[in-house]
Structures are given as structure tokens and as C-alpha cells.
Specification:
This protein is mostly beta strands and about 290 residues long. It has 2 helices and 22 strands. The chain folds into 2 domains: about 100 residues, no CATH class; about 180 residues, Immunoglobulin-like (Sandwich), CATH 2.60.40.3650.
Length: about 290
């Protein structure tokens, strides 16, 4: 059996990703208001990068992404996709999965752009940009000649579910990696979404910066859900099961004693919410 895991810890959140044989577990926790401006000088607050991902249109197994931004300068002329991500220990080169890329002005006119490297697109007149639109293929089912993206760090689009790891969907203009993000996910009304990211009043998922999004996987689709309180910390489980044989309440029942014991041992858990994302396929890996 092949087992791998990733742990990312700070005083704000904990993220754990692990893959075990035929199922994948994605987990993350959040213990903060994602965009906390209570102690900041409001004059210095950077406007967020606002992304929209259309998951209603899943044709071609591609993500349709729109970034709305209107304050680019010559310093932000290059749009950057991830070459790797913390904890993955591999070359990812997400630019390989880009299928289309264009920058538009406020009137919808295309601003010329060119790909200058595997993961970078240069926009000729960044000051005129109002939107950047691009499509990316999913990583799970897209063949590549080398550096296949490890499943727990990749993406999947199917008729009944979608998996998003931030570094494999979102890029950013050069110099803006530290900007806050707002993400609007458009998906079927019957679907559920699981992630540690919080929503704002407008329905956007919000994050402090690009790295926060990378630390916060998202699972959407035909999911079951369950939750439990462990010493004042919410533990949420969202499960996708291709065969519908595994449900979140079953998993929670199986690990409840472990969670309670961990709570008793630690006494004070480091975050106020954990979200575990479980993905069960109908294949085995060995």
C-alpha cells in the first residue's frame, strides 16, 4: 500500500492531505476570519483579486476561470501559474494544462498576450486590463509526458463532482501573490461544497492571499456530510463515493473515538474548525 501525507501548520490553521490506496483524503482547518482588517490601516488594504470559476460548464474536462482586476501596472504584466506547491516535493508546471488564455479591456476587446515560459503569460498592455480569462485541463485525466501531478495535489472534473487544489486552478499577476482573494464558484444547485475557506456576505469564498488558497482544497458535487464537536472545535466531513457505498456518517462513526481521544489529550485544539474531504474511487492502488 502506498501512503503519503502533507502537513501544513501555522498558528491560524492546519492542513493535512493524504492518499491511501483507493481513496483520497483532503483535510484543512481554519481558525480565523480570513480577511481580518480590524487591526489594519484601511488606507493600506489591498483590493482583492476576484475570481469566478464556472463549474456548470464542465465540457472538455476544463476549468473556466475569470479574474476581474482593474489596477494592473507594468510591474504586473506577467500572469503566473504554479510551478510547484509547498509540501508536494515535485515539479507541477500547471501552465502545461492551460488550454486558452486572454486578457480583455473594459469594452471586451482582447489585449495581446504571449506565453513566455511554461507557466507565464505576458500581457502587452496590463494597464488596460479589466478581466483575464483562461481555461485549464484537469490533472487527473490529462496525460503528460513527464512530471505527472500527484493526485492529492491535482484536480478532477466529472459529471457528479469536482476537486480543486488551488495551485492547479488559480494563477496570479506578478507581484500580487500577497493580495487577498475572493472566489465565486458557480455549480449545480443540487451539489454540496466542502472547504475550510469561509464565505463572505456576497457568497464568495475569501482568503488572505494566494498561499491560503493553496492550503485550502475544495471538493464539490454529490457529497454526503457529517460533523461533530470536539472540545468546542467543529470537525466536518464531506465525502464523495463513486459507488455510493461510503458515507460521511459511517466514517465519522469509525473515527469518533479517535477524535475524542485526541481532544482529551490536546485539551485545547489549535483551530476552531477542521474540514476533512474524502474522495473514494472504485479502484485499488498497490
Amino acid at each position: 500500500m502506498y501512503v503519503s501525507s502533507k502537513y501544513v501548520f501555522s498558528n491560524h490553521r492546519l492542513a493535512v492531505l493524504a492518499i491511501l490506496t483507493s481513496f483520497t483524503v483532503f483535510g484543512c482547518g481554519s481558525g480565523r476570519s480570513v480577511v481580518d482588517t480590524s487591526k489594519s490601516d484601511t488606507a493600506n488594504i489591498q483590493p482583492p483579486l476576484v475570481y469566478t470559476v464556472d463549474l456548470n460548464d464542465r465540457t472538455g474536462d476544463t476549468f473556466k476561470v475569470t479574474l476581474s482586476v482593474d489596477d494592473l501596472t507594468a510591474d504586473n504584466a506577467v500572469y503566473q501559474f504554479a510551478s510547484t506547491a509547498p509540501g508536494t516535493y515535485q515539479v507541477m508546471d500547471i501552465g502545461r494544462f492551460v488550454r486558452s488564455f486572454q486578457a480583455l479591456d473594459a469594452d471586451g476587446n482582447v489585449i495581446p498576450s504571449t506565453d513566455v515560459s511554461t507557466n507565464q503569460w505576458r500581457i502587452s498592455r496590463p494597464e488596460e486590463v479589466a478581466q483575464i480569462q483562461y481555461t485549464l485541463a484537469e490533472t487527473w485525466d490529462t496525460p503528460v509526458e513527464e512530471h505527472a501531478v500527484y493526485m492529492m495535489a491535482g484536480t478532477s472534473i466529472e459529471d457528479d463532482h469536482v476537486l480543486i487544489n488551488g495551485q492547479a486552478v488559480f494563477g496570479y499577476p506578478a507581484g500580487m501573490q500577497s493580495r487577498p482573494l475572493k472566489i465565486k464558484l458557480e455549480y449545480p444547485a443540487a451539489w454540496k461544497a466542502g472547504t475550510a475557506l469561509e464565505k463572505d456576505a456576497s457568497g464568495h469564498y475569501v482568503a488572505d492571499d494566494y498561499d491560503h488558497v493553496v492550503d485550502s482544497p475544495i471538493l464539490l458535487g454529490r457529497l454526503s456530510e457529517a460533523s461533530v464537536d470536539v472540545r468546542g472545535t467543529a470537525v466536518e466531513l464531506y465525502t464523495y463515493s463513486k459507488t455510493d457505498k461510503v458515507h460521511s456518517d459511517q466514517v465519522l462513526d469509525a473515527v469518533r473515538d479517535i477524535l475524542d481521544s485526541a481532544g482529551d489529550f490536546l485539551v485545547d485544539l489549535p483551530v476552531d474548525r477542521y474540514t476533512l474531504l474524502l474522495h473514494f474511487e472504485d479502484v485499488s492502488m498497490g
